[in-house]
Specification:
The protein folds into 2 domains: 219 residues, L-amino peptidase D-ALA esterase/amidase; 122 residues, ArgJ beta chain, C-terminal domain (Ubiquitin-like (UB roll)), CATH 3.10.20. Helices cover 37% and strands 25% of the residues. It is built from 11 helices and 14 strands. Strand 10 and strand 11 form a beta hairpin. It starts with a strand and ends with a helix.
Length: 353
């Protein structure tokens, strides 16, 4: 598992971390609740998270340390354990392994999401990787509120599985931004049944695909969002510089509102690039806007190009792609975000009411 870097770590993450460490990664079950984050709830919150694991362990006939727990919702309110107890009893007979069960689980963990998020692939070697996720607001994972649960039947030692997960998270969930806030509850879990042999490289490729697709779904479903923004930075001196530029652009409120207003105000993109703290040579920089059908070159090797009509047309697309070439190296990074609309303010102004 990979967790939030927010220092206000929620109780479920503390319990899940402890269980994985004490049990060498062995897992028999996972229980997730939506509506209450069980964060900033003190000792009682940890006790409630442990009790939640106890309840499922009793039903499955396993140790409580073999159960993982996650929560999402409002911060600072105690769990209503009578509801948790009742819902575990009601959910157990509904467990399944088909597509309907996956969709039901993805729907159950939603908060302000507008639709469930799930994705799966089957590799040439015969193993499968599938995942569900939730997230719509408070998304700036360092690792949003963002939860993702990925399963596979591929067999690899736990330490190699963790390496694969960390790399995938770094390339996917850590490269999305909705609003710049990082949740107390972010968690990505990878669970393997270990039924089918595989090469690490093949699993990594499949896991990357699933993680990136889930991450893009989260970005596209940002609270109040009307457009997906994809930013690719190339020609950077270092990978870290490429990430800095990409994430600064997709985090910028001015860029996000320009996309919402369908305004090809590329000066905001350049300004965000300049404050990213990456190494930049303005005379080598190139900028291009695109959608699935066309490109509009705005700057080429530091020289402003005649603004083509395509730029305004591209901004009307559901997916707006921004490509910055720094022209000083070979490293690159891609990230995803969404526009910032009036509805984002409305949704978050009314969240607890």
């Amino acid at each position: 598992a990979v967790y939030t870097r927010n220092r206000m770590i929620a109780a479920p993450l503390l319990v899940t971390t402890r269980h994985l460490e004490s049990n060498m990664g062995a897992v028999k079950g996972l229980v997730v609740n939506s509506g209450n984050a069980n964060a900033y709830t003190g000792k009682k919150g940890v006790e409630d998270a442990e009790r939640t694991c106890d309840l499922l362990a009793e039903k499955l006939g396993c140790s409580s340390s073999e159960i993982l727990v996650a929560s999402t919702g409002i911060i600072g309110r105690p769990l209503q354990m009578e509801i948790i107890t009742r819902q575990i009893d009601e959910a157990l007979p509904m467990l399944g392994s088909d597509g309907r069960a996956s969709e039901s689980a993805a729907s159950a963990i939603m908060t302000t999401d507008t639709h469930p998020k799930e994705y799966a692939v089957e590799a040439d070697q015969g193993f499968r990787v599938g995942g569900i996720a939730k997230g719509s607001g408070m998304i700036a994972p360092d690792m949003g509120t963002m939860l993702a649960f990925i399963t596979t039947d591929a067999k690899l030692p736990p330490d190699l599985l963790h390496e694969c997960l960390e790399r995938s998270v770094d390339e996917s969930f850590n490269m999305i931004v909705v609003d710049g806030d990082t949740s107390t509850n972010d968690m990505v879990v990878l669970i393997s049944t270990g039924e089918k042999g595989c090469r690490k490289e093949t699993l990594q490729e499949a896991l990357d695909t699933v993680s990136i697709e889930l991450a893009k779904m989260i970005a596209r479903d940002g609270e109040g969002a009307t457009k997906l923004i994809e930013v690719t930075t190339t020609g950077a001196k270092t990978r870290d510089d490429a990430k800095k530029v990409t994430k600064t652009i997709i985090t910028s409120p001015l860029v996000k509102t320009a996309v919402f207003g369908e305004d090809p105000n590329w000066g905001r993109i350049i300004a965000a690039t300049g404050r990213s703290k990456a190494e930049i040579n303005p005379e080598r920089l190139s900028l291009k806007l695109s959608d699935s059908n066309k490109d509009a070159v705005i700057i080429k090797n530091g020289k402003i190009q005649p603004t083509p009509n395509e730029a305004a047309s591209i901004m009307k697309s559901e997916t707006v792609k921004i490509h910055i070439d720094l022209g000083i190296g070979k490293e690159s990074a891609t990230g995803w975000g969404c526009d910032l609309s009036y509805d984002y303010v409305k949704i978050n102004a009314e969240y607890t009411t």
